[in-house]
Write a structure and sequence with these properties.
The protein is of the alpha/beta class and about 290 residues long. The protein is about 35% helix and about 25% strand.
Length: about 290
């Protein structure tokens, strides 16, 4: 099975819209599975017309929180000195630490330094993962980080593991992964294990700068990649700068997609662009053929 990941660095470049159209067309010629790895703000399902109620959800525990074992604590205050997240306060009346669950990242530093072994790490429900069948003949997997919790990267790792097993069961020939924006843990977890990465950018300095940083992550894993310039004709002069950048570093330019209001209308109607208007099919078939 081939694994293709779509990333952008900057948000709002059209990454999810492009992913949905590619998925619809690919599903017509082979068995695919799609994975929405933007667990902080998953939108691929919306773009494919899949409602929250269509998913089979499962609560997951990939994060931990520090918890005090009061009877063991002697009030030495050593735990206060090691928390880099400001999650530990102090109760002067009881002479014991107080743990703020909203700030605790579950790193375990306080547990390690406690001489009385009075701190334990407790698993918490920090999100959910689920799957749904789309109207386009393929399965979509998605994950969601619970509000106020941490562990996006771990949720994505678990989500991709589940996707691998489901793909094997369905005998899928390709997995299409919609990555989160940025360059942090969610993106690293999304990109890891890919066979090819598509970088999406738009003709603006911030989009190109973020794309460059995202591609550094891809290069770290030594994964081949190409780029797409979306809405290229909104700033033709800067689009040329992106082309010059790609030419200088021998990066394949997979496609230049022109701006079209119908892309926005497709989003409003919860449909991939190639479904909303079949005229867009040629654009996306050419991208698939280049890859």
């Amino acid at each position: 099975m081939r694994r293709i990941t779509i990333l952008s660095g900057k948000g709002g470049t059209g990454k999810t819209s492009i992913t949905s159209s590619l998925a619809v067309l690919l599903a017509r010629k082979e068995k695919i599975i799609a994975v929405d790895c933007d667990v902080d703000a998953p939108n691929l399902g919306l773009n494919l017309g899949v409602n929250d109620s269509d998913f089979s959800w499962q609560a997951i525990q990939t994060s931990e929180k520090a918890e005090l074992i009061k009877e063991k604590c002697n009030g030495c205050k050593k735990c206060l000195s090691v928390c880099n997240f400001g999650a530990i306060g102090w109760n002067d009346k009881e002479n014991k630490p107080i743990f703020n669950s909203l700030l605790c990242e579950g790193c375990g530093s306080c547990k390690l330094i406690c001489p009385q072994k009075a701190i334990k790490l407790k698993k918490v429900i920090n999100g959910r993962i689920g799957f749904a069948r789309t109207n386009y003949g393929f399965t979509l997997l998605s994950g969601q980080l619970k509000m106020g919790e941490s562990g996006s990267g771990k949720i994505i790792a678990l989500l991709k593991n589940k996707a691998e097993k489901m793909a094997e069961k369905q005998k899928a020939e390709m997995m299409l992964v919609d990555s989160a924006a940025g360059i942090g843990c969610p993106v690293i977890a999304s990109v890891n294990g890919s066979d090819f990465v598509i970088g999406i950018t738009e003709p603006s300095p911030s989009a190109l700068n973020d794309l460059k940083r995202g591609l550094q992550v891809v290069e770290h894993f030594q994964i081949p990649y190409g780029i797409i310039i979306n809405k290229w004709d909104l700033n033709k002069k800067f689009s040329q700068k992106i082309e010059d950048f790609a030419d200088k570093y021998k990066i394949p330019l997979l496609k230049k997609i022109p701006y079209n209001k119908k892309f926005v209308k497709a989003l409003i109607n919860l449909k991939p662009a190639v479904v909303y208007d079949k005229k867009f099919e040629n654009i996306f078939w050419s991208i698939i053929n280049r890859i």
